[in-house]
Amino acid sequence: MKTFKSILEFQKEFNTEEKCREYLEQQRWDGTPACPFCGSINVCRFPNGKIFKCREKGCRSKFSVTVGSIYENSKLPLTKWFLATYILAVHSKGISSLQLATWLGTTQKTAWHLNHRIRKMLTDSAPELLEGIVEIDETYVGGKEGNKHASKRTVKGGTGNKAMVLGAVQRNGKVRTKVIPKTDTANVVATVTSFVQPDSIMVTDEHHAYKKLAAVYTHKTVNHREKEYVRNENGLKVHTNNIEGFWNILKKQIVGIHHVVSEKHLQRYCNESEFRYNNRELFQDERFAKVLTQCNGTLKYKVLIGKE
Prior knowledge:
alpha+beta, Nucleotidyltransferase, domain 5, five-stranded mixed β-sheet, three-stranded antiparallel β-sheet, 10 strands
């Protein structure tokens, strides 16, 4: 598939359901259809080209390429699904549900559900541990106090009801994030050890919770309170500039595009920003293709809103 220079080129490439289905088959199954119920590749295709049947005696299930995927039982055509997926995968800040609804000709509710299902595809289900030099930091995500009604402002140093996100980025590598209830020792230690390979060099600010990890990692700190932001230590540049740069990207996405997000859904927004950062060296068509390989699973609306 060619590299796309614009959304118009993308739409010309995937302007029919047939083209979308063929490409989804290639990315999801690598060209070899597999039964989503038993995993067998002993399947046959019906004359209409859309439906398959498993030949295994214990299965015999009928299915299409969308069964068992995020696209299953969707009333939206794949042409619209593909366009929305492409936008979230390659656009630097994503897209709001209101804007997406306008582009696709759907309701805002449908576009909002669509966005979250695509964010599920953007989530790395088996991330590798970060290693080498890893910068770690935490940030608060929420509206600015000055923009809130006086009755809703907090007096807790501006953090109040904001959500806490802890992140780690490998120098010249990938980033990992996790929404945590608070930055106490238990949460910090559990999150960092799930992100970072032991014996790595951990660079943080002066937060006390990181000190508990000194036995696991080589710990280097920069003292932001004393206006120290970078230090050269025997050839090692000690700073947290990369993770702080990622926070800047994440907040521009949330504040600039979505304006406000609930803590309940915040992790998926973080995962969306993670995907684009971690695949920043890929071409646009390569990012899109990678997302389709991660289309298994579903996210029902009732589950999304906490009613099931």
